[in-house]
Amino acid sequence: MIRFAYALLFYLVQPLVWLRLAWRARRQPEYRRHLGERYGFYAAPPPPPLLWLHAVSVGETRAAEPLIQALLAEYPGHSLLLTHMTPTGRATGAELAGKHAPRLAQAYLPYDLPDACARFLDHFKPRVGLLMETEIWPNLIAAAHARALPLLLVNARLSPKSQRAYQRFPLPPLIRPALKKLAAVAAQTPADASRLESLGAQNVRVTGNLKFDVTPAREKLQLGADWRQALGRRPVWLAASTREGEEALILDAFVRLGLGPPGGLLLLLVPRHPQRFDEVAALVEERRLPFRRRGRGQFPAPETRVWLGDSMGEMPAYFAAADIALIGGTLLPFGGQNLIEAAACGCPVLAGPHTYNFAQATEDALARGAARRVADADDAARTAQALLADRAALAAMRQAALEFGQAHRGASARTIGLIKEFGSTKTGAVDYNRRDCGNFRD
Which residues are known to be catalytic? Predict the structure, then answer.
């Protein structure tokens, strides 16, 4: 009954969903494309048999890369459908689709509406479904369960904050049955596994974080090395994947640090969301800091103080060019972005107080000496300045970062093992004669 009410409410708010799409399309016109897919209407599907992996946006898509490679290698006779919810996730996935064509196809996952979910599953007829990280959609899971389609939640994480939210009425009667219908869960850490089990998840295994298995592209690392060589001995402080409100704090702390002579410390500022690139550029201009924009092909001159990283898909290059990186989302309560990619590139890390999205990885990095905790933007600026003056300490952090990344690899292989155990990929295993989305009495 609670899922019926949820579905009814979702139908009723569709006009607001359309307004939100229109609003977001003002900054990202890509939101106007493939609208039919958001309601379960698609072009011809890839050839069967088909595996399906859902990665909602950029971070999940990047994390999925090693799993995609492992799936294509493990199941050579299968195609793979990669679904997303955001244009930036789809654009990131397009790079992978190009590498693995024609076996890898892309589409948007429809909204969690019963008829849209049914159309999606009946159109593509996947043999197994994999949902990345925290994608718990009750109607989608019910539709898969009605068709005996095994769904697994992989690279799963659940912060204490999200756990508390899911435990508040009316979510438990909605989330608990959905989690119980999953065939299995591959959790990142024991803490994630425990929190998911408390909400009703079954067959939960700790497989590690897929992000540790991501290998930075050689061409991106070389690009960063070329930038580093062109900058010479000039120190570079990177603020990576910053969120709204953090850029102003970082820029003000950078100014208070003291700019020094031309050719001094360069702030490489990379916002997480591309729709905010111009907004962040305006923040830099307000402070009258000479800056260049990577998205316009501009490289820092000696008088440049800020280099705005307004490009997509070049984060490994930014990490390779930097001496030290502050991880965005950690200064304000966003929960933090991924520090694992920085470690894989050998870049020492500074992390603010808000790291609950990557709590275990952050604590492990701190324990190994690959990262340091800072209290706020000013503390980050002072710590970066002190480390840049102590090259021996910085070199030790760089080595610790590389060792930290290598020590946690192997999640892809463990996840494949779980898929083999709980996710049947045998032809005929799924009943696509069902046309419903599961009954609403659960």
Answer: 60
pLDDT digits (tens, 9 = 90+) for 217-250: 999 999 999 999 999 999 999 999 999 999 999 9
* Contact predicate 342/325, CB 8 Å: yes
- The domain made up of 2-208+411-422 has a fold known as Rossmann fold (3.40.50)
**pLDDT value at 425 more than 60:** no
Angle of CA points 339, 342, 345, to nearest 5°: 155
d(CA 134, CA 142): 16
Over 80: is that where the pLDDT of 366 sits?
yes
Provide CATH 3.40.50.2000 ranges for the chain.
Answer: 218-407
Nearest to 397 by CA among 355, 339, 354: 339
Task: Please classify residue 288 by burial: count the beta carbons closer than 10 Å to its beta carbon, then call 0-12 exposed, 13-18 middle and 19+ buried.
Answer: exposed
Task: Give me the pLDDT at residue 172, please.
Answer: 87
Taking the C-alpha atoms of residue 316 and residue 406, their distance in angstroms, rounded to an integer, is: 16
- Which of 29, 59, 54 has its CA nearest to residue 120? 54
Q: What is the pLDDT of residue 27?
A: 86
Decide: helix, strand or coil at residue 325.
Answer: strand
Which backbone phi and psi does 307 adopt, to 5 degrees?
A: -110, 115
In angstroms, the CA 318 to CA 310 distance is 11
Cβ–Cβ < 8 Å for 87, 42: no
Give ∠ CA 335-338-341 in degrees, rounded to 5.
170
373 CB contacts (<8 Å, ≥6 apart)? Answer: 350, 351, 352, 353, 366
Cis peptide before 49 (omega within 30 of 0): yes
The fourth-level CATH superfamily of domain 218-407 is Glycogen Phosphorylase B; (3.40.50.2000)
The CATH 3.40.50.11720 portion of the chain extends over 2-208+411-422
Flag whether pLDDT at 427 surpasses 60: no
